[in-house]
UniProtKB/TrEMBL annotation:
Transmembrane segments: 7-29, 35-52, 61-85, 271-299, 311-331, 361-383, 417-438, 474-496
Listed Pfam families: BPD_transp_1, MalF_P2
Role: Part of the ABC transporter complex MalEFGK involved in maltose/maltodextrin import. Probably responsible for the translocation of the substrate across the membrane.
Name the record gives this protein: Maltose/maltodextrin transport system permease protein
Quaternary structure and interacting proteins, as annotated: The complex is composed of two ATP-binding proteins (MalK), two transmembrane proteins (MalG and MalF) and a solute-binding protein (MalE).
Designated gene of the protein: malF
Length: 507
């Protein structure tokens, strides 16, 4: 293929991708997500300029990485922080305009008797027949009952036309979703009729009418409801909130609740303390176990070192979630092998999942098992880089293995390991998978009004608030996530600083 043909092929492919992107952004805009559509349009315009303009040739290799950071890191972080300043929850999902439109579309059964209806097939379509108590009948035009989209049909009086036999109740049940979407009107009447039961249509009317001042008038009882932009609900005169609610800005209310509310303050600080302790002890235990094993495996006189390395590396080779689920079975209080062994040897059957202390100990044991192979590999590589002359000089001076460990090995590997240990601390600070699969944060706090457990860490606590609480408070969960992000960012800065210090020392 010639260079010219290849160029036209690339231009054509780029044009197709550009049109597909514009079509996708149009759909995003029409669905009401204006900011997302504008952001996507900016990214698309920047991408087109970078890859099509000769002036931007130097940026083509840098742009994908920068764009990925902005799209997958910066945007989610900013978006999550923005949600933390709102009342976004399972009851406040929609915008004010969409909630208002929902309220204005609600209907209620109007005064007047319903009419019996029957369904009749007309080829691949159907016709509806409505009959009143006087025996007069009306029939609809043919309609396809294949989807649930709202349709407006004008009825006409049934004359001498003979309709096919009416469909069975089984067919009516199968077509019920499509029948509910129909709006039937009679000649010279504005009132619409809707399906009321499997055998009847009834007249309906709009439940609310919008007033000039923004309040909504209830057409049934004449009462007014008005929007409250502090709580995010339409309220009755008695102060009752009407569902659904709408999103509003609540400022720092969610952040204040985290640190000031009695409902959240107790479990929040307990969970924060356990999160820090869990991450710190995990780093300490994995480092101690991994370093000791690395030192032992680097002992030249040890036989079958290759076999030991392979066996000790297995926990790192097995997917973590599988190991966690296996340990969950091993620690089962009634049938687990660990309790069977402890009971046979010492007569003990610890309550691993119902006792808070035992549950935390179990988590640390499992996480140490999962994390020590990584530290062991790192320490093995660092020990190999230590000059053997140091150990020879130490042997001449009469030093033993423990002296070599604490005076030579540990000081020389601790500095280069420190940034990696801080990174491990940051990872375990958000180790959601371990907590979720092993204990699910339980046992729960007895005195807590919100879903919180003694083995919850901040990220699992956030998950339970967002997806397991009855209110599903996404705004509050986003505020906690923002706090977690800030803590991890501080740890990352410390990590970078330590890395820079180590690099300067090497120079």
């Amino acid at each position: 293929m010639s260079g010219l043909n290849m160029r036209w092929l690339l231009v054509s492919l780029g044009g197709v991708l550009l049109l597909a992107g514009l079509w996708l952004l149009l759909g995003v805009y029409q669905s009401g997500h204006t900011l997302s559509a504008v952001g996507g349009l900016v990214v698309m315009a920047a991408s087109s300029w970078v890859f099509l303009s000769p002036k931007a040739y130097a940026y083509r290799y840098l742009y994908p990485g920068v764009a990925a950071v902005l799209v997958f890191i910066v945007f989610p972080a900013v978006y999550t922080a923005g949600i933390g300043f709102t009342n976004y929850s399972s009851t406040n999902l929609l915008s004010f305009d969409r909630v208002t439109a929902y309220m204005l579309s609600e209907t209620t059964t109007a005064d007047g008797a319903g009419m019996a209806f029957s369904l009749h097939q007309a080829g691949d379509q159907y016709r509806l027949k409505l009959s009143d108590e006087a025996g007069q009948s009306w029939v609809s035009p043919p309609v396809k009952l294949e989807d649930n989209k709202p349709q407006q049909l004008q009825l006409q009086a049934l004359g001498t036309e003979n309709l096919p036999e009416k469909e069975s109740i089984k067919t009516v049940i199968a077509k019920q979703p499509a029948l509910k979407a129909l709006r039937l009107t009679f000649p010279n009447q504005a009132q619409s009729w809707r399906l009321n039961s499997l055998s009847q249509f009834s007249p309906t009317q709009l439940l609310y009418q919008k007033n000039a001042d923004g309040t909504l008038l209830n057409t049934q009882d004449g009462s007014l409801i008005k929007p409250n932009f502090k709580t995010g609900f339409y309220e009755t005169a008695a102060g009752e909130n009407l569902i659904p609610g709408f999103k509003v800005n609540v400022g720092f209310s969610n952040f204040t609740r985290i640190f000031a509310s009695d409902d959240f303050q107790g479990p929040m600080f307990k969970i924060l303390g356990w999160t820090v302790l869990f991450a710190f002890l995990t780093v300490v235990f994995t480092f101690v176990v991994g370093m000791v094993l690395a030192v032992v495996l680097n002992w030249e006189a040890l036989r079958f070192r290759g076999v030991y390395r392979t066996l000790l590396f297995l926990p790192y080779a097995v997917p973590g979630f599988i190991s966690i689920l296996v340990f969950r079975g091993l620690f089962n209080e009634s049938f687990g092998e660990i309790n069977m062994v402890l009971n046979g040897l010492f007569g003990l059957r610890p309550a691993w999942f119902s006792d808070p202390f035992n549950a935390k100990a179990m988590i640390l044991i499992v996480n140490t098992w999962l994390g020590y192979p990584y530290i062991m590999l790192l320490c093995s590589g660092l020990i190999k880089s230590i000059p053997s002359d140091l150990y020879e000089a130490s042997a001449i001076n009469g030093a033993g293995p423990l002296t070599n460990l604490f005076k030579i090995t540990l000081p020389l590997i601790l500095k280069p390991m420190m940034p990696l240990l801080i990174a491990s601390f940051a990872f375990n600070f958000n180790n959601f998978v371990l907590i979720s699969l092993l204990t699910d944060g339980r046992p729960d706090f007895i005195d807590s009004k919100v879903p919180a457990g003694t083995t919850d860490i901040l990220v699992s606590y956030t998950y339970r608030l967002a997806f397991q609480d009855s209110g599903q408070n996404f705004g509050l969960a986003a505020a906690i996530s923002t706090v977690i992000f800030a803590l991890v960012a501080v740890l990352s800065l410390i990590n970078l600083k330590l890395t820079r210090v180590n690099q300067e020392e090497k120079r």
